[in-house]
Structure formats: C-alpha cells, structure tokens
Input
Amino acid sequence: MLISVVVPCFNEQDVLDGFHRRLGECAATMDDAFEFLFVDDGSEDGTLAGLRRLAAQDPRVRFLSFSRNFGKEAAMLAGLRNASGDVVVLMDADLQHPPELIDPMVRLHAQGFDQVIARRTRTGEGTMRSLASRWYYRLVNRFMDVELVDGVGDFRLLSRRAVDAVLALTESNRFSKGLFAWIGFPATTFTYQNALRERGSSKWTPGRLLNYGLDGLFSFNSRPLRTALHLGLFLLLGAVGYAAWIIGAVFVRGVDTPGYATLLTVVVALAGAHMVMVAVVGEYVGRIYYEVKRRPHYLVKEVAPQPSAAALCAPAGDAEPHVLDPR
Ligand code: UDP
Ligand code: MG
Output
C-alpha cells in the first residue's frame, strides 16, 4: 500500500528537517511504501530551499510551491489533488501531529474505516484559547448542519474514496473541517496527547481564528439567514405589540409627549438589528460572489520532481498519478 503524507508548510524552515527525520524514522518501521508530499504555501523564509534540498536527498519527497500564501485550506486541497497514495495522511509540519501515530492510523484503516481522525486533548494549551474553542464548538454545533467535534482538526487519514469524495466538492470557500464531516463514510476517532509546537510560531492570531470561525459558520449552511428571519419576526411582533399599547394609551390618557428616551432606544436597537441582518445576508452574497468567479484555489510556482515532458503533454483530466496538479 502506498501512503501519501500531505504536509502544508508556511514558513516552517525551523522545523522542516526535524519533521522529515522523524517522519522517515516512523516510515522505516512500517512495511508500506511512502510518499511525502509537502505543499509550500508561499513561505517567505527558507522553507522552499529546504524542500528542494530534501527532495534531492530523499526520493520519497515531492513538493509543490505556491506563488504566494493561499492559506492552509488551499494547501491541503493541492496536497489531496496531487497525492497518489491509496491512503492519504494529512498532518502539520510543526510536529504537533506526531508521525508515530501514522502506524496505528493505518491499522485502524485496515479495519475498514475510511477516515481515521485524531482528536487532540487540550492540555498545555492556554486556558483562554481552550475556553474559546469550547464555546465556539458549542455555538457552531447549534448552528451547523454537520457536527464538529472539539479537538478534531485536520490531522487524519483518508482512504482513496474519501479523498475522491472531498475532491468532488469544488467550492471555492473551503472549510475542510466541515467538508470532512460532510462526506460521511465509516470514520473512527482516537485521542492523542497534544504536543506543543517545538519551534517557529503558530500562524493563528486571535483575529484569524475569529474569521476562520465565522467562515465555518457561514460556509456550511444557511441557518444564520433563518436566525435573522426569526429575529426580524420577533422584533416585528414586539414592535406591533408596543405600538398597540402606545395607541391604546393615547386613547385612554391622551397624548403625553415624553418618550424621547424610549423612541431613541427603539430606533437604535432596530437600526442595529437591521445592520446585523444585512451583514448576514452580505456574508452569503460575498460567498456567492467568490463562488461565481470560479478562480483557482491556488497557483503553483514550482513542483518537484519535475513532471516529464510526456506527462505534461498528456491530455488534461487523465488520471496519470505522477502528474503534479493538472488543474
Ligand atoms: N499553514 C499553511 N498556510 C497558512 C498557515 C498555516 O500551510 O497560511 C500550515 C503550517 O505550516 C502548519 C499547519 O498549517 O504546518 C498548521 O499551522 P499552525 O501550526 O500555525 O497552526 P496551529 O497548529 O497553531 O493550529
Ligand atoms: Mg501547529
């Protein structure tokens, strides 16, 4: 069996060699054939140079490099598209996903699971961040059609048919946690101890995390639109009731002018609610805008090993496994 290990890398020069060494050690303990497919997501440090060096040393190493930073989602997509293995393992370069787990994952896969999902414990992580994540999952699972599990990230093994299923979803706005949950197929989850990042720094600033969270919420379902509708109905009913009450009071007591504070509060509250609802609609319109443009998810600047001239001349769309990124 050929196992493709897909590794998105963005400014990972400090960890690359250590990662490759440990991955190689783990691969040596297993009987399966390996390919290590690194995707350089437009790194600005020595990552690309490091990958060229690794590819020259180790025939199992292949890489492609993006023309700029397109984000981890795009990098994973490129990796899945170009992986030729019977199974694909997605993992980070920073050794937070221990390569030692590939062996048990493959064994679980052999028991008939199409997705073997690693779930990390949150020990050693900042209290604020784990608290925020916990709340996020609670919120998201209320609002989303697919279920997301806290601690489950992109570290997982996918069978060939699961990979093909993910690749059949061509949306521009990719939220892979949702996509992986959406495709279904027999899946199993196991827990591992979260390792802290050894070197380099996490690319997730709180702002980036917030946006990622919102993306997840919006790109997976239309429930926020429904919520806006409910809120609007609720406000409308409240407003009608209040108006009836005021008009009744006018009949009973005549016009009493005071009410400036109430009026202002109502105006401000309604304006705020409207803005939120328009923004929710706007989020979807923005997504439609990106979907209809049908731009590629990423642009490739360099691949290795270079596809042969014959492979490049082959008609597009054939399933030549060693052609890097025909799309
Ligand atoms: N990554 C990427 N493109 C990006 C950001 C991150 O390919 O724009 C890669 C990064 O190199 C790493 C993985 O995605 O291999 C996870 O990133 P990071 O460790 O920063 O995230 P965290 O582990 O903190 O969630
Ligand atoms: Mg990390």
Summary: The pocket of uridine-5'-diphosphate (ligand 1) is lined by residues 8-10, 12, 41, 69, 71-72, 75, 92-94, 96, 197, 202-204 (CB under 6 Å). The two ends are 26 Å apart (CA to CA).
